[in-house]
């Protein structure tokens, strides 16, 4: 009755319409969750509103969502649009022809050291927005510089993503933040939509320094996102330390400056209007200058301990406890600008057998992986020998070789939630590779890890093997995988089993990750290293990380000799960017690194697994097609049948390498 009366009257004078607040503050609507006040506003008043930060409550609303009471007001006339959110000026983006690109370089920025003055300024609760010009000067279009397009800012539903770290290890899941007010504290209450309790996050390898630091987090910090500005308030009893390039740029400080914020102090750490001005200027300096702004969209916050030039710890990965915020709205804006700009600074050419193929590359960063796959498929015999043959030149803009970009593209191709769900239907819950639980149990019986040992798992996927190890062998497992999607699922599964204290799941690239010397008793990797070309480099790291007498256990694809490879196999390896080596070569690389190696070709076992997996897929055909599609079912059946054929013909098989240091 209240809602009907309110919709008829359509005024702010109507009373609050209250509903109970759910545990996470959201309502389940058509297979997705949304905020209740946002839903009612979208249905009955402002359908164009997309996110919670675009709304503010009226002064006389006693149960506004922002007040975090046990009941929530969903009266659509008790909320108004925040007008400033979508007033950012669009960026006028030029797409430069090649002849103008060479001289469009970023201009140097004078950045005096202002850490002391910055820290003093924040005691006054600075608001950057009050001193930012509301209208940005856009560069005038020039017919000499090509085509110009307006790229507008769009607010993201989850305005930021928060990750928690202890030294260099990311722990727990990533938190997607949709509410305008967030508390991050050190307590152990269940985390909610507007609160992250770091006390719930476990780490069996936590040292005394980290433990002491965590006890001092206390009430932690409060972060707000309103009117296009991110503000932080320190409500703990200890200092916090913030590195924000946007804030540093605004005050003319060095981008790496770390600012100390004492207990009770506040600071504005990111401002959309300021960022818009910087972005508008950067597009005139070329693709690289704009791409470099991605660093500005990440903010690092350390509890209790500082880092940088003024502190004993030089890098953030040396501090005991810290968080990283990624601002999704600005990042999406940058992505749109970069895709519009493309890159016309270099050409790509392949010279082979006196044939010259010249292609002008004009594309955004998301296109690079497709081109790389095409080149490896079409010219794999050339590219595999690129460092050995004279006269072959492959050139791309340097931005396309940024490891983070290639890593993310590889993840998106291989480990989407859809692919994970499909693989779990084939291999069983918790597994993304051949044989699932049965093979995992057989391999672990052979290596027989001892209770209390420390295991590093490389390429853990969604964590089935690692959870089994921790539950049944009493080992402590540090598991890493390049896929954030897989790691998030693994963390949730570990929490379901109540064994989080024995497990650490971390999103990381093993080639860039470092661990201590002689840190692990066992290093375990199943069906992962086919993704890695620098195997010799990796094996050296494994040798360094293992304790004397420690075990390295690898299960991976192997293949026939080079002259026996079929066209089908070459295409399969190229399309998936696999590095599959012959059995003897694989074992030799391990032995050359100093390991004692016992190698077994398990081709019959692999063929049996493939047959069982095909049968499993066919037995769930109706359910699979209903969940995915007939096309997807046919694709996977063909993929598995081709693997079985290659296995039976000796082209692609599976091996187990037991190594000791």
Task: Please provide a written account of the structure.
The chain is of the alpha+beta class and 661 residues long. The strands form eight sheets. Strands 22, 23, 24, 25, 26, 27, 28 and 29 form an eight-stranded mixed beta sheet that branches. Helix 20 (603-619) runs antiparallel to helix 22 (630-648) and helix 21 crosses helix 22 (630-648). The longest helix is centred in the last third of the chain and has 19 residues, at 630-648. The model is unreliable at 97-145 and 343-413 (pLDDT under 50).
Amount of beta strand:
15-25%
Which value, in Å, is the CA radius of gyration?
27 Å
Oligomer: single chain
Q: How many E-type strands?
A: 29
What is the percent of helical residues?
25-40%
CATH architectural category of the largest domain: 3-Layer(aba) Sandwich
- The CATH class of the largest domain: Alpha Beta
Termini separation: 75 Å
Which descriptor suits the 3D outline?
globular
Label the structural class: alpha+beta
Number of domains: 4
Uncertain parts = 97-145, 343-413
The CATH superfamily of the largest domain appears as Vaccinia Virus protein VP39
User: Under CATH, the topology of the largest domain is which?
Assistant: Rossmann fold
Summed over residues and divided by their number, the pLDDT gives a mean of 80
Tell me the major beta sheet.
Answer: 8 strands, mixed
Helix count equals 22
Organism: Oikopleura dioica
Domain MH2: 159-351
Subcellular location: Cytoplasm; Nucleus
Family: Belongs to the dwarfin/SMAD family.
């Amino acid at each position: 009755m209240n809602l009907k009366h309110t919709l008829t009257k359509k005024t702010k004078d109507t009373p609050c319409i209250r509903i109970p607040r759910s545990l996470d503050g959201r309502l389940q609507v058509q297979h997705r969750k949304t905020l209740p006040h946002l839903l009612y506003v979208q249905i009955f008043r402002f359908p164009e509103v997309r996110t919670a930060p675009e709304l503010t409550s009226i002064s006389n609303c006693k149960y506004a969502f922002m007040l975090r009471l046990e009941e929530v007001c969903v009266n659509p006339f008790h909320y108004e649009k925040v007008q400033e959110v979508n007033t950012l000026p669009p960026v006028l983006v030029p797409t430069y022809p090649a002849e103008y690109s060479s001289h469009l370089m970023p201009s140097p920025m004078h950045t005096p050291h202002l850490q002391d003055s910055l820290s003093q300024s924040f005691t006054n609760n600075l608001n950057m927005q009050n001193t930012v010009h509301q209208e940005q000067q856009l560069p005038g279009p020039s017919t000499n510089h090509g085509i110009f397009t307006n790229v507008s800012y769009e607010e993201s539903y989850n305005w930021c993503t928060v990750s928690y770290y202890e030294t260099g290890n990311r722990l727990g899941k990533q938190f997607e933040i949709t509410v305008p007010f967030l508390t991050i504290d050190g307590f152990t209450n269940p985390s909610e939509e507007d609160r992250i309790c770091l006390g719930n996050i476990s780490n069996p390898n936590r040292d005394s320094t980290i433990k002491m630091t965590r006890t001092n987090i206390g009430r932690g910090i409060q972060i707000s996102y309103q009117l296009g500005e991110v503000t932080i308030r320190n409500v703990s009893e200890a200092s916090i330390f913030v590195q924000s390039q946007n804030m540093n740029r605004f005050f003319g400080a060095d981008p790496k400056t770390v600012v100390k914020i004492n207990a009770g102090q506040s600071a504005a750490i990111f401002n959309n209007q300021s960022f818009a001005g910087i972005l508008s200027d950067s597009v005139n300096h070329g693709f690289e200058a704009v791409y470099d702004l991605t660093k500005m969209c990440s903010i690092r916050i350390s509890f209790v301990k500082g880092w940088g030039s003024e502190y004993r710890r030089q890098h953030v990965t040396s501090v005991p406890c810290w968080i990283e915020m990624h601002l999704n709205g600005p990042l999406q804006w940058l992505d749109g600008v970069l895709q519009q700009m493309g890159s016309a600074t270099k050409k790509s050419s392949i010279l082979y057998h006196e044939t010259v193929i010249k292609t002008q590359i004009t594309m955004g960063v998301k296109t690079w992986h497709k081109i790389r796959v095409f080149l490896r498929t079409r010219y794999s015999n050339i590219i595999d020998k690129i460092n050995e043959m004279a006269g072959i030149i492959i050139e791309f803009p340097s931005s396309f070789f940024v490891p983070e970009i290639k890593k993310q593209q590889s993840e998106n191709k291989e480990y989407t939630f859809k692919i994970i769900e499909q693989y779990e239907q084939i291999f069983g819950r918790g597994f993304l590779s051949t044989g699932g639980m049965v093979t995992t149990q057989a391999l672990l019986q052979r290596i027989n890890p001892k209770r209390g040992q420390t295991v590093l798992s490389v390429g853990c996927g969604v964590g089935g093997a690692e959870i089994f190890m921790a539950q049944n062998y009493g080992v402590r497992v540090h598991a890493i995988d390049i896929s954030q999607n897989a790691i998030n699922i693994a963390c949730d599964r570990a929490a379901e089993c109540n064994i989080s204290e024995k497990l650490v799941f971390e999103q990381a690239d093993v080639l860039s990750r470092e661990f201590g010397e002689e840190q692990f008793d066992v290093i375990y990797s199943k069906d992962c290293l086919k993704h890695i070309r620098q195997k010799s480099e990796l094996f050296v790291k494994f040798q360094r990380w293992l304790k004397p007498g420690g075990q390295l256990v690898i299960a991976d694809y192997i293949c026939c000799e080079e002259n026996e490879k079929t066209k089908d196999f070459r295409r399969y390896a190229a399309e998936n960017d696999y590095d599959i080596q012959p059995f003897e070569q694989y074992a030799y690389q391990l032995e050359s690194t100093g390991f004692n190696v016992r190698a077994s070709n398990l081709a019959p076992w692999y063929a049996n697994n493939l047959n069982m997996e095909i049968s499993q897929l066919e037995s769930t055909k109706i359910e699979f097609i209903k969940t995915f599609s007939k096309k997807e079912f046919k694709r996977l059946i063909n993929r598995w049948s081709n693997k079985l054929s290659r296995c039976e013909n000796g082209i692609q098989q599976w091996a187990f390498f037991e190594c000791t240091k």
